[in-house]
Amino acid sequence: MAVRRRASPSVASDGAAQAPVDVRPVPGDDLPTLAPPKLAVILSLSVAFFIPFFYVVFYLWGFLVALRSIPVAARYLLKRNLFGYDINKKGTPQGTLKVPESLGIVIGIVYLVVTILFQQFNFTADSNWLVEYNAALASVCFMILLGFVDDVLDVPWRIKLLLPSFAALPLLMAYAGHTTIIIPKPIIPYVGLKILDLGKLGDIQTIHGMLAVFCTNSINIHAGLNGLEVGQTVVISAAYQQAHAFSIYLVQPLLATSLALFSYNWYPSSVFVGDTYTYFAGMALAVVGILGHFSETLLLFFLPQVLNFLYSCPQLFKIIPCPRHRLPRFDPKSGLLTGTKDGTLVNLFLRLFGRCSEKSLCIRLLVFQALSCVFCFWLRHVLSGWYK
């Protein structure tokens, strides 16, 4: 979590206010050098994720380009005063370092280039998937732009909630899938229908639009730790790979480029991803779920994000007081985080399992994310044939 270099208080990605910082220009000679990427962690993850899909080595160059581009972009962002200070390291030498922000813009651009070039090798001019594929990329591109605008201009929260609605328009207009919902077998006797038709431009578009809004904002508020935003995206993307080919075409480059960012964002973080990345990742995962026709599976993959949102609702809707900062308390002497009473999954884990370091807490949350994906597959297997 960062305190941005702004002249007035602003709001962090999880709703926390950010303290004002000196806004004098940063001399070029004083720009900090990024720490080397944590490639050992990334390579071990890559082996587990990519062995079943070794035939898509096309995406390896996307990983390498993103890995080399991040330090270059970080230097330009520092020159433009787009940096922050790590709140969870306040009171330590690491808490005084200038950490470049908004590196999600690099990952988003590389992702778009890879997925656009991939069409040349896989799709023909009359491909049935081509229209929806490009509509998905248009929505993702739109969300990257709006996310970067948010990072630069610090858009108010009431506006942030509307941004994914506009970005999802190309996807919703190009949607050519079914507009029906299969009623679960146990409740068919009560509703008297086996299939419910929602209409082409009716409720199905509204549902998909709301799903896109939820996915983008849920990753944005389940944040505050080094590596958490990118880590949850990597875990969900790895689970998505078990779906059909269309999902793989869109998720593999997301996984490859996110791993490159993860190598710099993992504890201790050398860069911050910014709202650009959280919006981009949420929209990319949403379009795969919508166009792949497995919205229920998507929500099960997002179980930690759903729980975090529900737990945050009393504060988000001002039912109970919502402080400017909803982060854990950091003890610079012990280096441990202590949970507060604020309604976030990060604080809940600290209250349930006790104080721990930022790295250990992030690992616990990512393990919970992975277990949620495993639970999704188990549940679908158990309910197969009985539920639908």
From TrEMBL:
Residues 1-23 are annotated as: Disordered. It catalyses: a di-trans,poly-cis-dolichyl phosphate + UDP-N-acetyl-alpha-D-glucosamine = an N-acetyl-alpha-D-glucosaminyl-diphospho-di-trans,poly-cis-dolichol + UMP. GO terms for biological process: dolichol-linked oligosaccharide biosynthetic process. The chain crosses the membrane at residues 39-61, 102-118, 130-149, 161-183, 246-267, 279-303, 361-380. One of its GO terms (molecular function) is glycosyltransferase activity. It is a multi-pass membrane protein. Its cofactor is Mg(2+). Pathway: Protein modification; protein glycosylation. Pfam families: Glycos_transf_4. CDD domains: GT_GPT_euk. Keywords: Endoplasmic reticulum, Glycosyltransferase, Magnesium, Membrane, Metal-binding, Transferase, Transmembrane, Transmembrane helix. UDP-N-acetylglucosamine--dolichyl-phosphate N-acetylglucosaminephosphotransferase that operates in the biosynthetic pathway of dolichol-linked oligosaccharides, the glycan precursors employed in protein asparagine (N)-glycosylation. The assembly of dolichol-linked oligosaccharides begins on the cytosolic side of the endoplasmic reticulum membrane and finishes in its lumen. The sequential addition of sugars to dolichol pyrophosphate produces dolichol-linked oligosaccharides containing fourteen sugars, including two GlcNAcs, nine mannoses and three glucoses. This is UDP-N-acetylglucosamine--dolichyl-phosphate N-acetylglucosaminephosphotransferase. It comes from Spirodela intermedia.
